[in-house]
Design goal:
Elements lengths: L2 E5 L3 H13 L3 E5 L2 H10 L1 E4 L4 E4 L2 E3 L10 E4 L6 H8 L8 E3 L30 H5 L7 E2 L5 E5 L2 E4 L8 E2 L7 H12 L10 H22 L3 H6 L3 H19 L7 H9 L7 H8 L5 H15 L4 H26 L2
Parallel strand pairs: 1-2, 1-6, 2-5, 3-10, 6-7
Antiparallel strand pairs: 3-4, 8-11, 9-10
Length: about 325
């Protein structure tokens, strides 16, 4: 039986862990902390989807040394949290461990096994000193894209937004390896649709651009996806941002599938969903804006492509993040 660790007990991590634990086809554990850790230990993980609500007991700890080397490790942290967590992640990884790092921004391994002149290129602005590259060697990585709209309504309580959820996975070289097939079958049998994608890099790009466009706009408007869709002109801005980003992909040689309009329509289908950055704003958590901004700058600079709409929206979103942090600090000082 495979050993699977979910490093991070938030909405996505909890969703994965609960489904895997309920199916009982692997030895699953969750690394969490604080109130989330206490809740999982006491009550298990409770998940509400479009069709059901269920609770699954899951082994949870804050000390990865208790778990040892795993077969698969899903790192479901925010991208900006990974670097400082590498020391804690290390006990989970052996020479045969497969790791699935977050892909909200462009991941550090993006150009590993890349079919073009940038093959093997590292991105120092996204991986300081190559720390992630060394701690989690790219050859041990599978790409994964979480098309799972969900939020934690309380510690250990996950609510799915929208009727569909899935996470395609794939080898960076497009291969059909035993490990990717085994994990795809495990996830799918546990109720999480997971197809093997032969071009997972393109899928990572589309999810990145989706987040790059929708999250800053949600941060500025504070609207749900449905409210953003109904407001005149808002989706026009999202479309322009996606188009600018996809122009960079074309220069890099990435084959991007659906046009922006199709991706926008799919996203706003979860009309009641609040983008993760808006959820973080409302909860007073740090915003994942930095990894998105650094990602698009790192790739834009490789090909010197202009992105005026992206630059303008990201600049305003960055100011919103600063003012939100200042307001939270003032509130805490007067509490």
């Amino acid at each position: 039986m495979s050993r699977v660790c979910i490093f991070g007990g938030g909405a996505i991590g909890g969703y994965l862990a609960a489904h895997l634990a309920r199916a009982g086809r692997c030895d699953v554990s969750v690394v969490a902390r604080g109130r989330t850790l206490d809740a999982i230990r006491r009550h298990g993980l409770r998940v509400t989807t479009a069709s059901e609500t269920f609770t699954a007991p899951v082994r949870a700890t804050s000390d990865t040394r208790e778990l040892g080397v795993q077969d698969y490790v899903f790192i479901t942290l925010k991208a900006h949290q990974v670097d400082e967590a590498l020391e804690q992640i290390a006990p989970l990884i052996g020479p045969r461990t497969t790791v699935l790092p977050p892909t909200t921004g462009i991941p550090y391994y993006f150009f590993h096994a890349f079919p073009g002149p940038f093959d093997g290129r590292q991105l120092p602005s996204l991986d300081r000193g190559g720390r992630q590259w060394r701690a989690i060697p790219p050859q041990q990585v599978l790409g994964c894209v979480y098309w799972i709209g969900a939020h934690a309504s309380a510690p250990g309580v996950i609510v799915q937004d929208g009727a569909k959820a899935g996470c395609p996975i794939g080898e960076l070289d497009g291969g059909d390896s035993p490990r990717v097939r085994a994990l795809s079958e495990l996830l799918s049998a546990s109720g999480i649709e997971s197809k093997v994608n032969k071009d997972i890099r393109a899928a990572i790009w589309m999810k990145f651009v989706n987040s790059l466009a929708f999250n800053p706009v949600a941060l500025l408007t504070q609207g749900t996806l449905g409210e953003m869709a109904e407001a005149r002109g808002v989706l026009d801005i999202v479309r322009a941002m996606m188009t600018e980003a996809d122009a960079i992909a074309a220069q890099l040689g990435l084959a991007i599938g659906p046009a922006p309009d199709s991706r926008i329509a799919l996203t706003v289908g979860a009309s009641n969903h609040k983008m993760s950055m808006l959820q973080d704003l409302e909860a007073g958590r740090p915003l994942e804006l930095g990894p998105l901004s650094r990602s698009i700058r790192a790739l834009r600079d490789l090909e010197d492509v202009g992105t005026p709409v992206l630059d303008a929206v990201l600049a305003m979103a960055q100011l919103r993040a600063v003012t939100a942090a200042h307001a939270l600090k003032t509130q805490e000082q007067h509490a």
